[in-house]
Amino acid sequence: MISYQVDDRNIGVLTLDHPHKPLNILSAASFEELERLLTGLALGGPTGSPGQDRPPVGLIIISGKADNFIVGADIKVFAGFRTAADGVQASRQGQRIFGLFAALPFPTVAAINGTCLGGGLELALNCTSRLISDHPKTALGFPEVKLGLLPGASGCTLLPRLVGLQAALDMMLTGKNVYPYKALKIGLADEIVSAPALLGAAKERVLQLSAGRVVIAKRRKPLVARLLDGPLKPVVYRVARKQVLKQTGGRYPAPLEILKVVRRSLGRRLPAALELEAEGFGRLSATAQHKALTHVFFAGSGKGKLPAEPVAVSRLGVLGAGLMGTGIATVALDKGITVRHKDIDYQALGRARGHIQKYFQGRVKKRILASRETGLTLTHYSPTTDYSGFGRVEVVIEAAFEDLELKRHLIAELEAVVAPETVIATNTSSLPIAQVAAGAQHPERIIGMHFFSPVEKMPLVEVITSKATNALTLATTVKLGRRLGKTVIVAQDSPGFYINRILTPYLNETFKLLEDGIPVDLLDRHVRRMGLPVGPCTLLDEVGLDVAGRVAGVMAPFIGRRLEMTDHNQRFTEDGRLGRKNGHGFYTYSQGKKGPVDAAVYQLLDHPQRRTIPYEQVRDRLLGALYNEAAYCLDEGLIDSASAGDVGAIYGFGFPPFLGGPYWAMDQLGLPALVEQLSRLAQEHGSRFTPAPPLVKRAAAGEWYHPVN
Ligand code: NAD
Predict the structure, then answer these.
(1) Do both 535 and 394 map to the same domain?
(2) Are 129 and 91 in a shared domain?
(3) Is the CB of 246 under 6 A from ligand 1?
């Protein structure tokens, strides 16, 4: 992966280029290669034979890839750690090898074009100077926190020393990327140059550094930054800790460990600081949260094999310029796909265009895009009220109203205008695909593509096949979903598909708990404490009680009896409570802002007497209902793997990532213990908790959902 060359001015250039992969990932082998090369260079030349080699005047580290420097270390290595000691050892090894850059007797320059994450950034931090390109893919970051870890190969130690405490914590605690202009501003990069000029500029920098013409002097930081790094340090830690606890409820150990390590190590001598970092990394590498988050990472990045060679989509037709259609069009444009957008309502198309423009202006403001690129992107968008242009699209996504007859009618219209091989995807949230496709001339090219709102933010797409859908349609749709930057799970055509299927018992139990007297706001608080982003009452208000009621109506004939399903959803809708959109739901709303609980909702419940229900009971009932349904889903083949079910629940409705998804969490509880818990709940609260037979069977056989858990 690493090659070394010296140019005619005796500048050493170390090029990183994994020969068989599109991304540079640091594997155990590449660490070894680096160590060998750097040890040689430290001794005088690449072969490390004094007398034979002449040391270079300086060294440039650059990537041979067009759009990435190094995207990080190989996460599979972390997954193999058994104890904290394994983590400590790996951390020390990473620190030692990257430290070889810092110890070289000549200047080193990291020339960064494209993504530079985790271990890649740690390598760069050990260089004398960092030059970055203005390539749209150039981004620097420490995503370790998202895997329940800290940057343990010297990143946690070196970053605050370079960019100051606040900027470093911001990067490490959120795992967010930093883009070129911000990187320059905080001192993470020393210069931005255009990608083609990067190597030349890096060589100039090496010559200047080796001639002592540029001292990478500690830039005098602005007064505020100096205060934050000095007397106000305790305040920075306190505020950061408060924020972490607010966002994570203390359920994620990594950000707290990062704070602890930085607080204890900053200001110490390097070896002592690095040792604290290694110990922190070791502790985190042994946590259940790290294991769960790593599982989610692998499950979510699934680039599983496609059942056929997909058609590449360059032109997309979108039907419907409402909330979903507009979101889909926006994301497609952002990924470089040309969009033909049809609605019957001019005003809706006008609003869609306004939304798209605002979205891209936001990207320019955040300096993710240059304004000229926005202009160019908008030329790929064209609204229409007829079907002109639809003959040239590879895929159409239909996002008109949730109405079976309308959707069937639209498919008939589409079949008359699109090319014979065009895929027609419907973004229905609950209608069976087989019914939508009934009457179509070519049901084999019809498929479900269930996006979640807001499309720009929600990371999941649930693709639903009917029995008629063919392999090419499935492959093209999955590929398109991935191209749109989404994690794709494939679900079978069954009422509610997968996400709504597991959500239904959870929301049903919400109403049961309310019937039992728990106050709305207490229930929401308990659920947030469980680690979900919003409580179920707030969720129902956001989604719309009418929308949720429609989904419940689809589910009721199917699993309603087993779930002892309530009709409260409908009752709320009939009472005119649609949620946030009409300012009337579980909560009161004034000028779009959520206010206190509307006390009138208790009159709609059968037992308006309120009482406290303990957190543990709320947790066990809500999750128990969901787990039991998940057991049925996998058994029925609704999803093809427990891992798909895990990422689906996490990305589809915010199941707590640190639990690793429902199936991972069930394994952690232990299936026999879960069966026992459900049986107890069934006795106390009703037969809906009767353990699912496939769960009982698996528990009795001593099986797991994830065999190597
Ligand atoms: P919406 O009411 O915001 O928008 C629907 C749009 O379709 C409107 O602009 C309407 O003018 C347009 N339309 C109606 N008839 C049309 C026709 N014949 N040709 C072209 N356009 C037509 O609805 P939405 O929330 O965007 O939902 C659209 C679809 O997505 C529905 O099937 C819905 O169930 C599904 N969905 C919604 C959500 C959500 O959270 N809102 C989530 C997942 C899926």
Answers:
(1) no
(2) yes
(3) no
Helices (H) and strands (E) in the chain, counts: 30, 21
Please tell me the distance between residue 429's alpha carbon and the centre of ligand 1 in angstroms: 10
Q: Is there an atom of ligand 1 within 6 Å of 398 CB?
A: no
What is the Å distance from ligand 1's center to 326 Cα? 9
Mutation pick for ligand 1 pocket among 404, 424, 427, 581 (CB with most ligand atoms within 8 Å)? 427
State the residue range of the domain holding 374. Answer: 315-491
Distance CA 699, CA 697 (A): 5
Task: Judge if 563 and 505 occupy the same domain.
Answer: yes
Largest CA distance in the chain: 91
Q: What is the pLDDT of residues 651-701, one digit of tens each?
A: 998 999 999 999 999 999 999 999 999 999 999 999 999 999 999 999 999
Give the distance (Å) from ligand 1 centre to CA of residue 686: 38
401-418 pLDDT, tens digit each? 989 999 999 999 999 999
Does residue 547 fall inside a structural domain? yes
The number of domains in the chain is: 3
Under DSSP, the state recorded for 448 is E
287 Cβ neighbours under 8 A, 6+ residues apart: 148, 253
Over residues 502-507, the mean pLDDT reads: 96
DSSP string of 184-198, one letter each residue: HHHTS-SEEE-GGGH
**Cα torsion angle, 34, 35, 37, 42, sign:** positive
What's the confidence (pLDDT) of residue 223? 77
Of the listed 257, 277, 462, 509, which one is catalytic? 462
Residue nearest ligand 1's atom 1 by CA: 322
State the distance from the centre of ligand 1 to the C-alpha of 343, rounded, in angstroms.
Answer: 10
Q: Do residues 96 and 191 share a domain?
A: yes
What's the predicted TM-score (pTM) here?
0.90
> For residue 266, is it within any domain?
yes
Q: 378 or 707: which carries more pLDDT confidence? A: 378
Is residue 305 over pLDDT 90?
no
Q: Is the CB of 400 under 6 A from ligand 1?
A: yes
Task: Tell how far the Cα of 346 is from the centroid of ligand 1, in angstroms.
Answer: 15
The residues that bridge with 59 in the sheet, in sequence order, are 12, 108
- 200 and 346 in a single domain? The answer is no
Ligand 1 atom with minimal separation from the 398 CA: 29
The span from the CA of 8 to the CA of 13, in Å, is 11
623, 640 Cβ separation under 8 angstroms? no
425 lines ligand 1 (CB under 6 A): no
Ligand 1 site-directed mutation target among 343, 410, 486, most atoms within 8 Å of CB: 343
- Examine the fold and report which residue of 432, 465, 491 is the final residue of a domain before the chain moves on: 491
Is residue 142 located within the same domain as residue 201?
yes
What is the pLDDT, as a whole number, of residue 607?
67
Catalytic site residue 32? no
List pLDDT tens digits, range 192-230.
Answer: 999 999 999 999 999 999 988 765 555 567 777 777 788
Same domain, 369 and 281: no
Whether 98 and 130 share a structural domain: yes
Rg (CA), the chain: 28
